[in-house]
Amino acid sequence: MSADGFASTPPPGARSDWTIEQDWQSYTPAEHQVWMTLHERQSKLLPGRACDAFLHGLDALDLHRGGIPDFSRINAELNRLTGWSVVAVPGLVPDEIFFEHLANRRFPAGRFIRTPEQLDYLQEPDIFHDVFGHVPMLTDPTFADYMAAYGEGGLRALGRGQLHNLARLYWYTVEFGLLESADGLRIYGAGIVSSHAESIFALDDPSPNRLGFNLERVMRTPYRIDDFQQVYFVVPSLQALLDATLQDFEALYGRLARQGDIPIAAIEPGDQVFTHGTQAYAVSRT
Ligand code: HBI
Ligand code: FE
Question: Is residue 7's pLDDT more than 80?
């Protein structure tokens, strides 16, 4: 087992980089129906909530076409736009493998889809979360560069013992990030856009804090994997997000090792506050 708890060898049938064939022909009508149900619900909800880059990406990849998308079809367009592609994996892959794919502009996506009983929540990333949630943003050149930079940063950070800090950056941006726009806050995080309930909660609920993005601050903030977030971080632009990865991470890791974590619902002096949340939802769940 490696430090992240995975066997270091891929499961039977997977290649050494953990990829598998998508085997698109083998999806059942019931599986295509789950995609269509989720797709219809989210594409009705997201205009006016998701950022323009995400909505444009959905259109560019023609993810409105019925059923589970065939990776070979979306890859032709994705590759043309930003040099990215989607590869199928059995589920979560070890950190090193994950970073290696991202650094080479390959997004590892689960090939399985949730069951009708799991429409609203599942722990492992399935093809709906990975493809509907993540891939539209990869059509945006700036975000595409950010994801590749994250993968490169991950490879450099391996063995440093501070991957938990870097994972927080991924969590609060790629998964749960919000973006400022002229018309108010918009969603770009895949964990939000792939969840019906969190697409409402993240923007409208008075419970969570909504704070301006600051790289070091984000990397000091723990997160929840099992429920709606208690804090969302807002970037002024996707370019600002990419620019943040250009700073010296060596110096940053040194500071992070000395500073403590910030409690998940805290508001610190220096935070840019969009919403000072009530935390009523989080309190109701404890
Ligand atoms: N594997 N398939 C998959 N998807 C992820 O989002 C993922 C992963 N392995 C590791 C991982 N994420 C995280 O540890 C990184 O965000 C740090
Ligand atoms: Fe994800």
Answer: no
